[in-house]
Design goal:
Layout: E1 2-6, H1 13-22, H2 28-35, E2 43-51, E3 54-62, H3 72-81, H4 86-107, H5 122-138, E4 142-145, E5 148-149, E6 153-157, E7 160-164, H6 167-172, E8 178-179, H7 190-199, E9 202-203, E10 209-218, E11 229-237, E12 249-257, H8 265-274, E13 279-286, E14 292-300, H9 305-315, E15 322-327, E16 332-340, E17 343-352, E18 355-361, H10 363-373, H11 377-391, E19 396-397
Helix pairs in contact: 1-5, 2-5, 3-4, 4-5, 4-7, 4-9, 10-11
């Protein structure tokens, strides 16, 4: 199942919560996640409302008044102590990390020195954790969204009067298609922007899908220009061309690391593959002040993004990730075996339209057979590759060069 967010009226945490609940996520799901936070009692209720005649759900976050200004370290501590599922905790950390980095850039301070004001309040914590829990409950294969309406004019915040779109919102949505929209006020909050930046994999008009459910989440205002709602459309993807279907969408996650003991990298790569990553690799780079470093690159399907992000954030020293949607064109693949020198060796067979294009032998099988037969690995590799080529004529079987040839 995939989802599409209609953001013509912007986005906020409570609007996204309302859209999720109206689309069928039980209120108990975000409420349980919010209740797991080790903070003063915060509860959620849902109210049916209309905006320009359109029925919608408005989720209210009931939190005791507080003037506490939390830092990024404070929020990390709260989420670490919360009895949350790992995917929800990792997803919420990713949202607040984006907020900290964006606020730090705006105020020209390190992310760890940022003092959250509105976005560190209990209602913002509840919005983030509740929305992440709601999307994890849906287990979407892909979340897409329209361009985001940000509003225009000015607004008053903790630091005084600021222009709209807010500086932090623009930082959070760098690279995302945005527009002012018809409402001369703030229509996208920093919390809403951070949630979108962390969860949406593709920005597009409504993709081809068979609609299952539609949810509308209302904001508190009711402007005259348009219905103040976020719509969440859920459905099954439709292949527009059955002969040449669209390549499957995936994600590329990257981060630069210059302060990790290099002996830890093999374990990091192994953990990423175990978490569901399609591939993971390191590229040596040179960073500022001449520091040698590595770029960690991870390919993964959207469904395992939270698990992969959690591995990167917990096993390396990075404080942020770059996430890009990518498309993959892949041959059809299947496993086979060939008889070699009295043993069996696995073979990967790649084809297109029923025509075999490539075969490659499993090197671990080759090495194991060579050890059992007490033969040089290169001889077993050559024999296995030749056998694979004979079993699949016409394929391009790659044979490693053999010394002396």
């Amino acid at each position: 199942m995939i989802g599409w967010l209609d953001l013509a009226a912007g986005a906020s945490g409570d609007m996204l919560l309302g859209a999720l609940v109206d689309a069928g996520v039980p209120l108990e799901v975000p409420a349980a996640a919010v209740a797991a936070l080790p903070v003063e009692a915060v509860t959620l209720t849902v109210e049916p409302v209309t905006r320009h005649g359109l029925g919608a759900a408005r989720v209210h976050v009931h939190a005791p008044p507080s003037d506490v200004h939390r830092t990024w370290a404070d929020v990390r501590g709260i989420l670490a102590a919360a009895a949350l599922p790992d995917a929800v905790r990792a997803g919420a950390l990713a949202v607040f990390e984006r907020l900290a980095v964006a606020e730090g850039r705006v105020h020209r301070v390190p992310a760890d020195e940022v003092h959250f004001h509105e976005v560190g309040a209990l209602d913002a914590l509840a919005d983030v954790v509740g929305v992440v829990a709601g999307f994890e409950h849906l287990r979407l294969d892909r979340l897409t969204a329209s361009p985001v309406a940000l509003g225009s004019g000015s607004a008053r915040g903790a630091h005084g009067v600021v222009p709209v779109p807010g500086p932090a919102v623009l930082e959070l949505l760098a690279g995302v298609p945005v527009l002012a929209g018809p409402v001369p006020a703030e229509t996208c909050t920093p919390t809403g922007a951070a949630l979108l930046a962390a969860r949406v994999q593709q920005w597009t008009t409504l993709p081809p899908l068979r609609v299952r459910r539609v949810g509308s989440g209302a904001g508190g205002r009711d402007p005259v220009e348009l219905p103040n709602v976020v719509r969440l459309v859920l459905g099954d993807p439709v292949e527009t061309d059955p002969v040449s279907p669209e390549p499957a969408a995936g994600l590329l996650l990257e981060t630069n690391v210059d302060d990790l003991d290099p002996r830890l990298w093999p374990g990091v790569l192994t953990a990423l593959l175990a978490a569901g990553a399609s591939d993971a690799w390191l590229t040596p780079i040179l960073m500022k002040k001449g520091r040698p470093a590595h770029t960690l690159s991870v390919l993964c399907p959207p469904a395992v993004r939270a698990a992969v992000e959690s591995v990167v954030l917990t096993t390396t020293s990075t404080i942020g990730l770059r996430v890009q949607p990518v498309h993959k064109v892949a041959l059809d693949r299947r496993q086979d075996e060939v008889a070699v020198l009295g043993g069996r060796v696995g073979v990967k067979v790649a084809s297109s339209g029923g025509r075999v294009l490539n075969v490659s032998v499993e090197f671990d099988d080759v090495a194991a057979l060579a050890g059992a037969l007490q033969l040089p690995v290169k001889e077993v590799l050559r024999a296995a590759t030749a056998a694979a080529h004979r079993a699949h004529p016409g394929a391009s079987a790659t044979l490693a060069p053999v010394e002396g040839e």
